[in-house]
Amino acid sequence: MIQDIFPHRLLNSYVPDKEHDDDSLAVVFDEGKLLIKSSPESDGSSRKLFPRMSEIPAQNKVLRTTYLFTVDNDDLFLVDNRDKTFIKPEGYEFSQIRELRQQPDISHKGKFEAFTAKQLYSWYMNNTYCGRCGKPTTKSKTERALVCPECGNTIYPRVVPAVIVAVLDKEAEKIILTKYNGRSTNYYALIAGFTEIGETLEQTVEREVMEEVGLKVKNIRYYKSQPWGVADDILAGFICEVDGSRDIKRDEEELSVAEWKSREEVILQPDDLSLTNEMMTMFKEGRL
């Protein structure tokens, strides 16, 4: 899955006084697009994503940066580009973050770094001003948080709980697969949804299955979790069994497809990044 980058190692401790140097990696966004190397490596190796600070053109003003995290020995720093005066280094371009998933010449590690950086970038951008009093926020000196010096409001990075659900018909050995309306990709997926106020994760499973396909479920059990930085999610995977009628009543606004599929009929996603695909693979191989 996206977080499985071993033997590489993520170090995400907050270091408020850490400063970039020439070897640091520059993470630059423009309207949500990420600056990455524009072409594959000539030797066929995985494409390098981020420029080193030493590659940044000298015409840029003094760079204001924020330390994000470290992977192995590479420190990643977010470059403040809110004034849009940043000049791209040669050989780099701004790309839609979600498009990186479909690019095979970008390593698994690179995609994880990009997704996680996007989560922190969005949090910083969305909390430039205090949501309580409207004054500009500042970075905490002790923890990864933004603080309002006017009213004392403290804002932490946004992590949104959501569930991924494998609904099984044990007797027929089938699983419900879906496709969502309005998605750029046309992959099969599982039922999913965000946890609402006052709900347990298990109650979210029951509600989402009922809302999306009109079925009751039983024997709900936890499988595994996954961070998904592009959407600020922490995804919790659950397995459950249909309880009663197998007749699907598809939410037509949410889903374009919702069908029972046998193990042989399951069409997997083209990469191994998602918790959804791992759970579908487990079912297809008879391990779920």
What does this 3D model show about the protein?
15% of the residues lie in helices and 30% in strands. By secondary structure, the chain is α+β, with helices and mostly antiparallel strands. The protein has three domains: 10-125, Nucleoside Triphosphate Pyrophosphohydrolase, CATH 3.90.79; 127-157, no CATH class; 160-284, Nucleoside Triphosphate Pyrophosphohydrolase, CATH 3.90.79. Strands 11, 12, 13, 14, 15 and 16 form a six-stranded mixed beta sheet that branches. Strands 1-5-6-2 form a four-stranded mixed beta sheet, covered by helices on one side. The radius of gyration is 21 Å and the shape is globular. The chain starts with 9 loop residues before the first strand and ends with a helix. The model has no long low-confidence stretch (mean pLDDT 94).
Précis, in short:
With 288 residues, the protein is an alpha+beta fold. The chain is built from three helices and 16 strands.
| CATH architectural category of the largest domain | Alpha-Beta Complex
Helix content: 10-25%
Shape: globular
Biggest beta-sheet profile: 6 strands, mixed
What CATH calls the topology of the largest domain is: Nucleoside Triphosphate Pyrophosphohydrolase
Helix count? Answer: 3
Number of domains: 3
Question: How many beta-strand runs?
Answer: 16
Question: What is the N-to-C order of secondary-structure elements (H for helix, E for strand)?
Answer: EEEEEEEHEEEEEEHEEEH
The poorly predicted ranges are none
Annotated CATH homologous superfamily of the largest domain:
Nucleoside Triphosphate Pyrophosphohydrolase
Distance between the termini: 17 Å
CATH class of the largest domain: Alpha Beta
Strand proportion, as a percent range, falls in: 25-35%
| Class from helix and strand fractions | alpha+beta
Mean pLDDT: 94
